[in-house]
Structure formats: C-alpha cells, structure tokens
Design goal:
homodimer, 121 residues, alpha+beta, 20% helix, four-stranded mixed β-sheet
Chain lengths: 121, 121
Amino acid sequence: MPQRKHYLFVCVNRRPDGVPKGSCAARGAVEIHGALKAALAEHKLAKVEARACTASCLDVCWVGPTIAVEPDGFFYGRVTMADVPEIVQALRDGARVERLVLPPEDFDEATAHPGIPAPQG
Amino acid sequence: MPQRKHYLFVCVNRRPDGVPKGSCAARGAVEIHGALKAALAEHKLAKVEARACTASCLDVCWVGPTIAVEPDGFFYGRVTMADVPEIVQALRDGARVERLVLPPEDFDEATAHPGIPAPQG
C-alpha cells in the first residue's frame, strides 16, 4: 500500500487514575482510535487516504483527547466518540473540523480554553 | 510550550518473537525513540523545534525501524541507533538524512529494497 495521504496520530497516553492532569486515554482516546480506524476501513479510506495510528503523549494533555493530523500539521483537541464521523467526513471532503482544531493558545496550559474534565478516579 | 515545528513518530510496534515479518520494536525502535528524545533534549530542541513520540504500526514493517517525520511528510526507514545523531543534526540544519528517506517503492513490500533482517527469536 502507498504512503497514505494523511496519518492521524491519536494520543493514547495513560496516567494513573486520580492524577489531576488526567490523560487522553482516561478520557476515552483508545476507543476513539478504534472507532476512527473502523470508520476509515468502512468508508474504504484506509488503504490510500488515511491511516489512524496511536501515539504517545503529544504534550497538550489539558485539551485531550488529541489527534495530530499529518502532514497537514494541525491538531484536533477535546475529541469525543461523537466527533469521529465528522472527522472522517472532513477527510473525505478534503476539509477539517474547524471547531476541533487547536488554536495556538491551546498549546500552552496557561492560555488554553477549557478542556474536557479529567474523570474522577 | 508551542506546537513543535516537527514531530517524529517512531513506530514501536512489537510482534511476537519468531514472526517472519518482524517488527520495529524487535529491531530496536524503543531504544531509538529513547535516544532521539534524549538527543533532542540535550541539544535544547525539545521545547520548540521537535518532539519525539512513539507510534503504533506505520505499515512499512519490511523497512523498519521507521519514523514518520511530520508535518514534513516523509518517512525514515531502516533506522539504527547509529543514525540518531545524524537525524538530529539534519533537524538543526533544516535538512533531512536523504539516505534514510523511504522512496515510494519502499511502501510496498513487493517492490521494497532490502530491509534490516528480523532478529531470530
């Protein structure tokens, strides 16, 4: 199979339950990666268009779950399972889900907009 | 910290010992990721210039260990520990290590140039 046009790197870093920072895995990132992979296969996008991979910490924990969309060079943040169909549709349309794209201020915890709360554990 | 200028996604997929295809982890990818991360920190590149992450299978197992360099959109393949200083120097120079960059034919196992043999296990 050729190099895919897009690679979606889903952070699945997991911190111990109860750590205030939380982690993408604690907010459902493993399931999001699975759903994304299944949706790409279902729409026959997996062999040429896009591949969903897991990744270690992308260092924007406060707005996780996060996905680095490459080589496009942008990050989705605060992703939920409900967003997966829209993310896949955007790939098909050559577009992106603008409401999920992290602006520069979200890359710094001090200036980030609110994230999804870490689950209590 | 800002979005880094580059993200290096090192495949660390591991297959059971003895599987003929081998895997990036069986060929030393975990150690390569560790060395890359340490070298980026040592050269003070980690906070702005580049972040080394691990990733799941990038689907070019036959030429592993592989690294997706993003958003540049190319892959390094057949990477060894000895290549890490050159990879970091290339980042500093705004260049790439051309001898490690995978050409299109390496993305298909049927047309790929020889890879690093899978270790016997």
